[in-house]
Amino acid sequence: MKTFYTFVLLVVAFATQAQQTISGTVLDEKNKPIAGANIFIEGTYDGASSDDNGRFTFTSTATGNQVLVISFLTYETLKVTIDVANGQNKTFKLKESVNSLDAVIVTAGTFDAGEKARVSVLKPLDIVTTAGAMGDIVSALQTLPGTQTVGEDGRLFVRGGEADETQTFVDGIRVSQPYGATTANVPTRGRFSPFLFSGMSFSTGGYSAEYGEALSSVLLLNTQDEATEEKTDISLMTVGLGLANTQKWGNNSLSFNTAYINLEPYQKVFPQRADWNKPFQSLSGEAVYRHSFDSGLFKLYAAFDASQFDLNSETINSPDKIRVDLNNNNFYLNSSYRANFGSQWQLFTGLSYGYSENTIGISLDDVANTEHASHLKLKLKKSFSDRVKLSFGSDYFITRFNEDFKANSGGNFNSGYDANIAAFYAETDIFFSKKFAVKLGARLSDNDLLRETVIAPRASLAYKIAQNGQFSFAYGSFTQAPRQEYLKYADYLESEKAQHYILNYQYSKDRRTFRAEVYLKSYQDLVKFDTPTVQFNSDFSNSGSGYAQGLDVFWRDNKSVKNLEYWVSYSYIDTQRNYRNFTAEVTPSFVAKHSLSVVSKWWINKLKSQLSVTNSFTTGRPFNNPNESQFMNGSTKGYNNLSLGWAYLMTQQKILYFSVSNVLGTANVFGYEYANTPNTDGVYNRRAIRLTADQFFFVGFFWTISENKKDNQLNNL
Fold first, then answer.
1. Which terminus of the chain has fewer CB atoms gathered within 10 Å of its CB, N or C?
2. In this structure, what DSSP letter does residue 586 have?
3. Over 60: is that where the pLDDT of 353 sits?
4. How many CA atoms, within 13 angstroms, populate the side-chain half-sphere of residue 495?
5. Helix, coil or strand: residue 10
6. pTM for the whole structure
7. Helices (H), 339-464
8. C-beta separation of 640 from 664 below 8 A
9. pLDDT digits over 227-243, tens only?
10. What are the tens digits of pLDDT across the range 164-181?
11. In whole angstroms, what is the distance from residue 263 CA to residue 178 CA?
12. Across residues 457-482, what is the average pLDDT?
């Protein structure tokens, strides 16, 4: 028995001796204690939590060198190797996590929208709930600062740049033909319905090195990663019909929508100024298929659009109208795959193919053109830590354009070009703290048609001056191949170039956002030609230049008034260019010096209705009056458009929607067309450029069929 007791005492003594005490204090970067931090030895259950003074102590049977893990909610997890025998009274400092919601983000030149945006200036549904937008992405974006309202065109003009200086991407892959086909002074629309997209990023300048071939701006549209539920949406409208459906099975989902638009019945009720032989008609559709893997996602997006119209176009230079008959067929296919692999690696790859065919009859002449455009993309991203991330990748753009012109007189002329652009980029994000971040990158591109290689550096930084406010700065060098109408005649040109400098301040708190941004953009190597219009015998050069500078202000409030959300945007721009066939450096005709938009949406619970109001105002735009000696010395009167939208919830899943643009019937003039020769009095006569109608009325019935009886299309109206 004595031997037994001796054995027990030896075991207890050995166990007691094997227990080692580990203690210390957990502090932040300002040497303040962190209470509630979790401390433990990796691979064991030995650990403790820090007290109000940041202190902790616990015992462990582990010996030798061990990994001590210290973690807390808004701080980076710290792993440090310690000698257990000497692990007493240690001090550990945690760094604030740069992934926290209140960490700095680079915002200069970029508006983000969607559920994944940390600060969202627009929501995806704003595209279709904004009065006057009529479900058009571009029309909704024109209520943001930095954009120009060019009503007779309908495309996106950004900070003094032409519409073709903005590139559109779907899921990171370029769309070569983002707009519907049209003719002069008949506004076009974007080809894409907003209903399949979950968010967007709209850059007014200084964008990432990942994107190129855009002098002014990029618009990034992201399709939904997953379908929320199975449902069917039916749309009956004064302009046509629409049908949408979503199906889910296993790891797969498929969403599609189709639309048939025919403006002939509408125009019989609401006469137009245009002399239509056949009003606009189109059949379009989109579909996105998704398949989820354990660590990846595959998406296949396809869209088609077939449209036509026929009108007799008025011109000041002919007593007879010119007949324009246009048929367009467009197809776009986009596939992408993204996945996580290895240690903090991300892969993205995708490709797109776009086909556009136009058959145009102009009086007795015929023009037919086709474009094949492809984009291949590979992107890799590595997170070395929460503070350092590297991304790099490559692009390959392929364009094949051909045009045939057949004159009534018997002459035939063919033009076109084949272009291949290979690009490589690298970019790093460095977070020095949750208050200060830097993004550095560069893009190298080689254009075999232009026989040139260019390097475009990019840099941006952001500094958080308060919990809800920060400054951002962005610089970038950008290049873009000359537009299609030049390259088909002159493949000896160089890329056009621009430099961006942007300073941004953003404040966001409690569903309120304020942004103010000043910018300077300089243009070099713009294309000039020496004929009244672009012709096969024009003399082209890269001798043009220009600048744009200004101020953009944005305020959005979703909080102050119950059931009311609104935003106000204002832009001031000073810009001049000497390009195309200009005789001096002047402000282009599509630019208004001051622009103001006020948008509001109010849910009236008693009436089961949503009322939306948009008022857009711009000062006059310049135009050239040949009756005056100074080039581009004329100015139109100011533009004003007050639009209303009203959605009434008949039942939970049935909605009646009404909208009218330009409620006041303002006779907006976008410029003037002058005669080529003076009259007998030596005066050049003119004709005002206006829309085919000052107002547009819309009535629609929208019905949702789903298992969730509360679901409807109100968020899409």
1. N
2. B
3. yes
4. 26
5. helix
6. 0.86
7. none
8. yes
9. 878 889 898 988 899 99
10. 999 999 999 999 898 887
11. 21
12. 92
